[in-house]
Amino acid sequence: MKKKMVGMLLCAAMVVSLIAGCGNSGADKEGSKAEDVKKADDSGKKVYALVTKSAGNPFMDIIAGGFTDVIEAAGGEVIVRHPEAATADAQVSVIQSLISQGVDSITVSANDQNALQAALEEAMDAGIKISGLDSATNADSRQVFVNQASDAEIGKTLMEAIYDIAGGEGQWAILSATSQATNQNAWIAAMQEAMKDDKYSKLELTEIAYGDDEPQKSTDQTQALLSKYPDLKVICSPTTVGINAAAKVLQDDHSSVKLTGLGLPSELAEYMGDGDDKSCPYMYLWNPIELGQLGGYTAMALVNGEITGAEGESFKAGDLGDYEIIKAKDGGTEVVLGPLFKFDSSNINEWKDVF
Amino acid sequence: MAGKSGRSIANKPEKVWQKRILSWEGMLVVLFIAVNIFCINISSMYQFSNVLREMPKYLTEVFILLPMAYILIMGDIDISVGSIVCLSATMACTAYNKGIPFIAVVLICLMTGMACGFVNGIILTRFTELPPMIVTLATQIIFRGIAEITLGSGGSVSLTKADGFRMISGKVGKVPYIVFLVIILAAGFTVVLCATTFGRRLYAIGSNKLAAYYAGIQVERTRLIVYSVTGFMSGLAALLLVSVLYGANTTTGNGFEMDAIAMAVFGGISTNGGKGKLQGGIIAAFIIICLRIGLGLINLNPQIILIILGILLVLSVLLPNIFRGVKLQSKSIEMK
């Protein structure tokens, strides 16, 4: 009986304290709100938020660096928020927290195409401008997406590189990430589309191997490719983990097989060169600093009202030049950063320290 | 008039009152108020309306905490709840996308959860020698595996139209429905635990399973019921999570089990069973939620928030032990 009483009393205490707490905050609200409005008026600073995929992701950190630089140079304020875990659920909490703070713009690199829709729609209802970067959300939950490069462009560029390195004919293979990765599959499909050209008729794609973006599995898959296809000439790996693992295998084995694909200069520097002792003659990647910068300019243009995210609009992105908003494959709109950046022995040394 | 024992009618209520304040739950209430004052101070955005708006996503974990407290009090554990949430959410989304009416989708979601909980319960009660930690670890993997197969190669499913789920995430004024639901269920679970025979049976089983069995309690039947209820509540949590996320993916519900156990332990519920009160767990849950929202508003690095929560948890386990040690020492000094 006593215990029951204690329990009931405590429940009552909790409810009372909750109401009291709310009462307090309610009373404070008017005062603090007025203060905030005043603060915003005084400085006139716009607040731009960037929601990353996860904490401790070097690629994301470089993008965030570019994003922050251009906005702070223009006099805006930047908030970079990492989610608790690399999941869409954790990103939802971050977005809702940003809505509470009343930011002017949110730029997000989505961990899931659709799961952020409810949160982002709420943000748009609150008048916040939403743009995507690096990894897109679906068309309904954004104003515009900043795309690193179009899929077709990546497919064409990589096929041309394979053609060049293989000398126009021979066997080649792809080392990808997971079999479900949206971007990987889109790029592979674009390569296969480009391959239909007669020019590439003497090239033979032997296998698409999946290293799941794990260093060990990618190493195993590369070794399997080497033993299965003794006549293999080129491996193309459009993923940073895969290309790194493959480069190490090929160079350690003194294999004659050459490598190209999409990789980080800092990781590939020691494997890059034109001689026989190096495994990778050249590779590509977009410039993440510029990607971050373009993301920043796009967010600012949205907030200024220069663009609304509709097809056909154009805006000036500082030193990057003019960009036009085009229709994206998913029905939304996007801005494409531009052609891929080529890394070879001539420029690798200056880039390997950057990212 | 003091009697032989030193007690008198006059000073008895005072002592009880003191005890209430000094109980773990009393301290949690104080901490809860302190956390709220702290959050109001650090961020001017920590306002009632903002907290209410951010709360629904966090509240889904409270639905799991309630039955999890029962399980811990029985001296058992269930680490498959996160996967049950994932599977139920997947089933609900897939079914709703096929054009099945919303009422049926709700039933499918809840029944999927309950079936999963029932499977856990059946295995554990038929083969009582199996440790619940291992069995639920196995079902955790199995349930998530089934969800992943259903999700297919994309690894995620989203609602093509969200009308029904939009209804659930509606609000009365500024207060989301889910807040009312949490309050009602929390009150219900608390009353059942501290005011019914069923609740007392849980404590009896947790204190000594064998003694409870010889005292005529149907131990296995009670466990089966509690595990099924846990599954059902996981289904409910899934339903509300879908109304926030408009979809499900392979990471949905990841870590829910550990969050729920952490809230319960923070609230003073012992994982050894037989000890603790659900009220404590509920207050602890709100402390954690308020702290997360408040620290999020000042854009603190999420990893630091996790560290703070971890330290709180360790302290909450350590402090009672230290107090008990001090008490024993002072008692032994008195004896001398």
Short account of what is shown:
The complex is a heterodimer of chains A (355) and B (336). Chain A has 355 residues and is of the alpha/beta class. In chain A, 46% of the residues lie in helices and 19% in strands.
CATH domain class name of the largest domain in chain A: Alpha Beta
Task: Tell me the number of strands of chain B.
Answer: 4
CATH H-level superfamily title of the largest domain in chain A:
Response regulator
**What is the chains' assembly state?**
heterodimer
Write down the secondary-structure element order of chain B: HHHHHHEHEEHHHHEHHH
Would you spell out the secondary-structure blueprint of this structure?
The complex is a heterodimer of chains A (355) and B (336).
Chain A: H1 2-43, E1 47-51, H2 58-73, E2 77-81, H3 88-101, E3 105-108, H4 117-125, E4 129-133, E5 144-147, H5 151-166, E6 170-176, H6 182-195, E7 203-210, H7 215-228, E8 232-237, H8 240-252, E9 258-261, H9 265-268, E10 282-285, H10 288-304, E11 314-316, E12 322-324, E13 326-327, E14 333-336, E15 341-344, H11 348-351
Parallel strand pairs in A: 1-2, 1-3, 3-4, 4-5, 5-14, 6-7, 6-8, 8-9
Antiparallel strand pairs in A: 10-15, 11-12, 13-14
Helix pairs in contact in A: 2-10, 3-4, 5-6, 7-8
Chain B: H1 12-22, H2 24-42, H3 48-73, H4 81-97, H5 102-126, H6 132-151, E1 156-158, H7 163-168, E2 171-172, E3 175-176, H8 177-195, H9 197-207, H10 209-214, H11 219-245, E4 247-249, H12 256-266, H13 278-297, H14 302-335
Antiparallel strand pairs in B: 1-4, 2-3
